[in-house]
Task: structure prediction
Amino acid sequence: MASEIRVNKIENRSGLGTVTFADTGVDLAGIVTATTFSGSGASLTNIPAANVTGTLPAISGANLTNLPAANLTGALPAISGANLTGIAATDNVRTGILDVAGIATFRNDVNVGAAVTISESGIEASGIGITVANINGGQIGGRRNIIINGAMLVAQRGASGGTTSGYSCIDRFAVDHSGTDEAPTQSQVDVSSGTGPYAEGFRKAFKITNGNQTSGTGNTDYIGFRQTIEAQDLANSGWNYTSSSSYVTLSFWIKSSVAQSFEFNFRTEDGTNYQYLMSTGSLSADTWTKVVKTIPGNSNLTFNNDTGVGANIYLLPFAGTSYTNSVDSTHDAWQVYNSGYLFGKDATTTWYTTNDATLEITGVQLEVGSQATPFEHRSFGEEFDLCQRYYMRYSAEGVQYHRFAQGQMVSANGMQCTFHWNKKMRTTPTLGQNGSFGTYVTNAVASVGTLLMLDISSRGAIITGTSSGSYSAGLCVDLIGNNDTDAYLEFIAEL
Result:
């Protein structure tokens, strides 16, 4: 039989420790020493921090609160910070390195100090400015645009009415055509305000107006814009043209009176000829559209460092099937030039079969690099000088007896005048003349027929002719327009 001792309190002999038995449990006063302790410690409270020693077990800290910041040491684990809140603006990342693998997207502008702002529209910098190693992957200084007269500013031959195949209006841009029932006309026109190219600073465009092609689309019919590029301008451009990781970018504005797409290409002329075929994509009628194409280098390309033809850029309003081949032609890829389909894929016929359809271009830029940068606007004077390397026209400018050159009579009827061009031309030019010319000797005017050039160079020539008058050899003579306000001489060194 079990025995019980019932007491309500046990006190040690010194009175320093007691054990009190209450209805709710046992209360211990004093120091308790035990070899082991078993059971739950869930109800243990108010344990002084100084009495907690050793290593805490690996348990959840989910319910830990009010931890002093000074007691958080060591490296934080790699965990999500998605629920971090209350981070003061003054406590954002301010020192060290922000290391992002991949693309970092910021919802608003990024301010770097007080001087630099990065936004969707670009980088704004005050103070010293921005230091860069290159622009578009190439040199910082020098000209970017390889195209001459891309803003269509210069028209030495006249601003309207040209129908001749080749150069007859805008300098450096030719219109080639063949097989047409009615020749297309060329003109320099104004760019309307409120349009995309106008906003980018363009005031002139090159316009071609289709004639009435009553017989429809012939296999050998074609109409095309062209700029021919001097070989040395490509060889010395900075383009590593034999590398597929080096690029040039072609950009231009285009507007058609009919909705359709147009073919265009970049064709090399040195070594083995290659062509890179492209399309404008579908254009809306009477709407300016900016076209941008990036062209990689190719190990087969060759550009001689000389004054000959390096490449042609063609834009084709139309080309018949004798010059196209959709099966063997590939867009946005290099291929060996084939005269059987020199213009690329089969052309859309809408523009060509629409009487008096129009096509306009401006802002043509070819630059080294994989990006289309803003157009390089040059002054009219600069552009004019570049154009005169290939063509110069000396006109009567509305004066009846305009003096073109001076020289002497070398015989009773023979005259010679020295003519120096404004600048060195690309090569020895040919002479063209329009209107009536005459000689002015001893206050008398006499007509002169066809003029010829002697001792021609890229800088000047001796112009000879036969006067209808009879004079003593050695007399001074002026070569003049003979009562012709539209007379002109032209010197042609076009590619």
The longest strand covers residues 309-319. The domain at 160-388 is CATH 2.60.120.260 (Jelly Rolls).
